[in-house]
Write a structure and sequence with these properties.
With 281 residues, the chain is of the alpha/beta class. The chain contains ten helices and nine strands.
């Protein structure tokens, strides 16, 4: 496994593979890797000849009062996971490589950046879109892999890729969960013992909403939203940022479930963590 920190080295390492017509798969990450990231890498390993992972805690997607400084950085463990999963190249640039002095260009995906997490994290998705586009230009992959746990991010990156005519397949990989249903996240380590015990109630609430729709025929989004919020209040506590039911294609609010085009998404502050999760109907 090769580890590089500059753009010239990334392109030099990948050039021979590209000339041989090999398929390059790319998994962009902020490190603090876990089995959710491993699932992305495994999918890329299955689909592609060469797998690249980036590890870069991107400062432009953190707000002024968010957790950039304390975001977990676990370099040695991250490299061990990458090596275990057969990654060919790890790209881990310093911030000055990605955002040199005088940097002034940013990418905004309109409409999709504004709802859900965009409402409470202004500028977040501008930072996400910018860094992902830069990484795409550096790595030039044939396919890139993102988890459905960050559904808004995945949908936004697909839109950007299509709008900018990038020749990259965006592959969504299903959310990986703990045995009790909690979606894996690098921020789960912020949870204290009591918050961790309560955290699975978020996914329980989503599953109950799915059951209400699929088994009982409840399609009214206001009713389902209320049930989710009530379950979270009773069993998880914490502070609800949002619970919303939106269209999967445009992330616009729905009044009734549209089968095959519905995302139920939530964000909840619990203990020291802001947890997000979702299901698709």
């Amino acid at each position: 496994m090769q580890i590089v920190s500059d753009i010239v080295s990334v392109r030099a390492a990948l050039s021979p593979h590209r000339k041989q017509g090999q398929r390059i798969g790319f998994v962009p990450t902020m490190g603090a890797l876990h089995e959710g990231h491993a699932a992305l890498i495994r999918r890329a390993r299955t689909d592609c000849n060469v797998v690249v992972v980036s590890i870069f805690v991107n400062p432009t997607q953190f707000g002024p009062h968010e957790d950039f400084e304390r975001y977990p950085r676990t370099w040695e463990a991250d490299c061990a996971l990458c090596k275990r999963e057969g990654v060919d190249l790890v790209f881990s640039p310093p911030a000055a490589v990605m955002y040199p002095e005088g940097y002034a260009t940013y990418v905004t995906v309109e409409r999709l950046s504004e709802p859900l997490c965009g409402r409470s994290r202004p500028g977040h998705f501008r930072g996400v879109a910018t860094v992902v586009l830069k990484l795409f230009n550096i790595v030039a992959p044939d396919a890139a892999y993102f988890g459905w746990k960050d559904a808004q991010q995945l949908i936004l990156i697909r839109r950007m890729t299509e709008d900018l005519n990038l020749p990259i397949e965006i592959v969504g990989v299903e959310t990986v969960r703990e045995a009790d249903g909690l979606a894996l996240s690098s921020r789960n380590r912020y949870l204290d013992a009591e918050s961790r015990r309560r955290a699975p109630a978020l996914y329980e609430a989503l599953r109950l909403a799915r059951q209400a729709f699929e088994q009982d025929g409840v399609a009214d989004c206001a009713v389902l939203t209320r049930r989710i919020c009530d379950h979270i209040d009773q069993h998880a506590g914490g502070r609800i940022d949002y619970v919303e039911i939106v269209s999967l294609d445009q992330l616009q609010p729905l009044t009734s479930i549209q089968k095959g085009n519905t995302l139920i998404a939530l964000a909840v502050h619990l203990g020291g963590a802001r947890l997000i999760d979702n299901i698709r109907l």
